Amino acid sequence: MTARPPVIEVRRVSRRFSRRLDLVQRVARRLGASVHQRIVHAVDDVSLTIGEGEAVGLVGESGCGKSTLGRLVAGIDAPSAGEVCFRGQRIALDDSEAARRTALKIQMIFQDPLDSLNPRHRMGRIVGEGARYHRVVPPGEIDGHVDSVLEQVGLDPSMKSRFPHQFSGGQRQRIGIARALAVRPEVVVCDESVASLDVSIQAQIINLFMRLRAELGLAYLFISHDIGVVRHIADRVVVMYLGRVVEEGPTKTLFDDPNHPYTQALMSEVPRLDNRHVDFNPISGEIPSPLDPPSGCHFHPRCPHAHERCRAEVPALKRLSDGRLSACHLNDA
Amino acid sequence: MARSHAIPTLKVEGLETRFVTRRGPVPAILDVSLTVGRGEIVGLVGESGSGKSVTGLSIMGLIEAPGEVAAGKVLLNGEDLRTVSRRRLRQLRGDRIAMVFQDPMMTLNPVLRIRTQMVEAIRAHDSSVGAEAARQRCRDALAQVGIPSPEERLDAYPHQFSGGMRQRVAIAIALLNRPDLIIADEPTTALDVTIQAQILAVVQSLCREHGTALIWITHDLSVVAGLAERIYVMYGGSVVEEGGVDAVLDRPLHPYTDGLIRSVPWHNEPGRPLNQIRGMVPPLDRMPRGCRFRPRCDRATEGCREPVALADIREGHHARCIHPLVESR
């Protein structure tokens, strides 16, 4: 799809979470009752590539597995099956030197900066600690390095001795970005990084993300439920529903002409400034529980086009004539 | 439009709510005036700290110490909620005027069945309703907001519902007594897009069918664009712009509204830098004199240091600005 060699390659990755049975359930099972361990397929056989300097958007609603996939890519969590590779090397989660080097190259920026910044540390330490520990720059140059990173994200280095609570929401998000940049990453995973910000501040941070990408050649995995933000920032968009990828393609194609019924619903129901006096007529049904997903195509209970096959058979993610991928049986007709 | 109606459902005049701090009283909202006609949907839009939620709570009479409503009138069907007795206020709240919050657990008691809470809301206002009739009304209300198998769901506890369903229950409770006005404070902010659209559909049809007036408080201009007929934009505790939804969004008068609209990603070519309003909202106790948007405004002059009144600039389209964007753009 892209001529650029992939920086990140996610190969058929799954992540399952299981809840251990409590005492009563274990006893009941011993006695022959049919008590099953409940397993959530948070990410179910997902493949994904991110090219050199490419921005990939990952969208979906609650429980679709987008954050879990982000954590797998960032090397914070290990897949139950499949592998995640950085420049062809499988990401390992051990203490080896190679694993640590790779971990530095992939950084993550979280949604709520106040939850991800240590409230007892001063801003200069928060930003510089990773670089100091990993000797990203020689020990004598740490201060200068931190100052230059802070200037890069639009923070005043003279505020280094302040604590996180002394900053506004937008500034705290900049601290989170500075901390990620201080170790000179090549890939940044942004998980809902602008979701909690006011519109005018959100615009400032989105502009910062775009400027940093141009200046540093960063590749992004941009996770968001706000598809307006993703449309603005991403070259390519991946849509997930209940742990599976349902559609993937270049941003413009996906937004102009969504193929999968779920993508279509998502696109038509997102409120836009230009849609006035709307007669709301949404798709019905709730997002099913990931503990008990529907059979076949996960979307079939809510899909206006569902037929018998959708209930029985999981649709494969297939390449369409225009190059994008979509997982819908309707494309076979 | 509903403004031709003799008495509007809600008319708020010169509302001021302040919070008493160690350094003296700080006004959270100043000179807020709103009108909502019968069956009208009005959007109240602003960023954090703009005073939009305080406005909603002040109308409901839910401001508690150290806050106080210091001035203004809140006329519900012509009756001033600020001067009526506590008893009368309790009669009106939950009956003629209801509120829906962002977090439905603000409304729902986690240890009571939905049925218990709904029946209580009916009987508190009309003790003559019999048990079976009350149950019937609760079931109808749940069905109306699109809850499947309402009969069984009446006996469920709040934690047995998903977030979207819980918000529907909260809306159903607000609707029970067919209020004249509902104030909804960010009710869909925590919900997913497809679920938000479902709630918007429910609310819209209810207002159309029953003539319920609605104030939709939100930070999201896009939601209000599709739902509301008129918009009030708040900044720094005051209404800075008011008008029909098309007028405000297509031809904004106030530089703040204009900046806000131009910073929305959908309104920009993908990949281009977004318009950004420089700086940030100052804390309430350090608001500048005169126009509160002045330090962030490109059009500000010396004259902006004087207090500015909300003025009718284009027929029915008001702005609190001495340099409104009136030239054709």
Walk me through this protein's architecture.
The complex is a heterodimer of chains A (333) and B (329). Chain A is of the alpha/beta class and 333 residues long. Chain A is built from twelve helices and twelve strands. Chain A has an eight-stranded mixed β-sheet with strand order 6-7-8-3-9-10-12-11, with helices on both faces. The longest helix of chain A has 18 residues, at 199-216. Chain A is globular. The two termini of chain A are 25 Å apart. The mean pLDDT of chain A is 90. Chain B is of the alpha/beta class and 329 residues long. Helices cover 29% and strands 23% of the residues of chain B. Chain B contains ten helices and twelve strands. Chain B has helices spanning 52-60, 86-92, 114-123, 131-144, 150-153, 163-175, 193-210, 221-227, 245-250, 255-262; strands spanning 10-21, 24-36, 41-45, 67-76, 79-80, 97-100, 181-185, 213-218, 230-235, 238-244, 311-314, 317-319. Chains A and B meet through helix 8, helix 9 and helix 11 of A and helix 6, helix 7, helix 8, helix 9 and helix 10 of B.
Summarize the structure.
By secondary structure, chain A is α/β, with parallel strands linked by helices. Chain A has helices spanning 23-30, 66-73, 97-105, 113-116, 123-133, 142-152, 169-181, 199-216, 227-233, 251-256, 261-269, 308-312; strands spanning 6-18, 39-51, 55-59, 81-86, 89-90, 106-109, 187-191, 219-224, 236-241, 244-250, 318-319, 325-326. With 329 residues, chain B is an alpha/beta fold.
Q: Give the class of chain B from helix and strand content and strand pairing.
A: alpha/beta
Major beta sheet summary of chain B: 8 strands, mixed
| Total strand segments of chain A | 12
Number of helical elements of chain A: 12
What is the beta-strand fraction of chain A? 15-25%
Termini Cα gap of chain B: 28 Å
- N- to C-terminal distance of chain A: 25 Å
Question: What's the gyration radius of chain B in Å?
Answer: 21 Å
Q: What percent of residues of chain A adopt helix (DSSP H or I)?
A: 25-40%
Note the run of SSEs of chain A as H and E: EHEEHEEHEHHHHEHEHEEHHHEE
Q: Could you give the order of strands across the largest sheet of chain A? A: 6-7-8-3-9-10-12-11
Characterize the main sheet of chain A. Answer: 8 strands, mixed
Poorly predicted regions of chain A are: none
The 3D shape of chain A can be described as globular
> Would you tell me the structural class of the helices and strands of chain A?
alpha/beta
